[in-house]
Design goal:
single chain, mainly beta, globular, two-stranded antiparallel sheet, 227 residues, binds zinc ion, Glucose Permease (Domain IIA)
């Protein structure tokens, strides 16, 4: 596949901090029985504009896990010995028909109000979006809004993170499909850097690895992902 993604933020606004690629704490957290975090967390400051990484059709919603009984471990993230509720909070999903891929942007402070928002439903300990909306055939003129690559789709925040276990950041996902229940199976995720699949450990600041040959970023002058 040809590179088609541009950075979902203005590079000059990015403060180099933790989590350029994957978070070190992913090594110790377990979410839903999986210790993988199929996404990239970009530690940008609260309110930084978030940009569409490519053109496509956008919708938005809200999602988090409700804090219920502690025995329900699947609903929690264990971090430094404590349990925290988590979810993507306010998020935007963009379907890119040409590539038949989705990008998703989580924990937004708020989403661009011109992007159709689907009210979440409360269900068995989850506040989740109406997932039937998230199948590719529903990303059309009627249900979604056309966005251009580089367009502002929302603003960085910490929504969906309950208990203050993490700083505001942009959770960025790239995936191929959702199953019938609207879940994104592990084999549906792609690593835009082409690092994850080839590495047997996570890269993180101090352990940076070069991008793989099959990365999906449009490169700028300095050979880095750009706009
Ligand atoms: Zn994340």
């Amino acid at each position: 596949m040809k590179p088609f993604l541009t950075l979902p933020f203005k590079l000059e606004l990015y403060k180099i901090g933790g989590g350029w690629f994957y978070r070190p704490q992913d090594l110790i957290t377990k979410v839903g029985g999986s210790n993988r975090h199929f996404a990239i967390d970009l530690y940008l400051s609260q309110g930084t504009p978030v940009l569409a990484a490519a053109s496509g059709w956008a919708i938005s919603s809200y999602h988090h896990f409700l804090l219920r009984k502690k025995s329900d471990r699947r609903r929690f993230i264990r971090y430094r010995g404590k349990l925290f509720g988590s979810g993507q909070g306010n998020f935007v999903v963009i379907y890119h028909p040409r590539q038949r891929l989705f990008t998703q942007y989580g924990h937004l402070e708020r989403v661009n109000p011109t992007i159709p928002f689907y009210k979440p439903k409360k269900k068995r300990g989850l506040v989740q979006p109406p997932v039937e909306r998230f199948q590719p055939r529903l990303f059309n003129q009627k249900n979604a809004r056309r966005v251009k690559g580089g367009e502002v789709i929302g603003w960085v925040g910490g929504s969906g993170i309950i208990g203050g276990w993490d700083k505001p950041h942009l959770h960025f996902e790239l995936y191929r499909y959702r199953d019938r229940e609207g879940k994104k199976p592990g084999d549906s995720f792609l690593d835009p850097y082409d690092i994850y699949k080839t590495a047997n450990h996570y890269p993180w600041p101090g352990h940076k690895r070069p991008m793989g040959d099959n990365h999906l970023w449009v490169l700028g002058k300095r050979g880095l992902p750009s706009h």
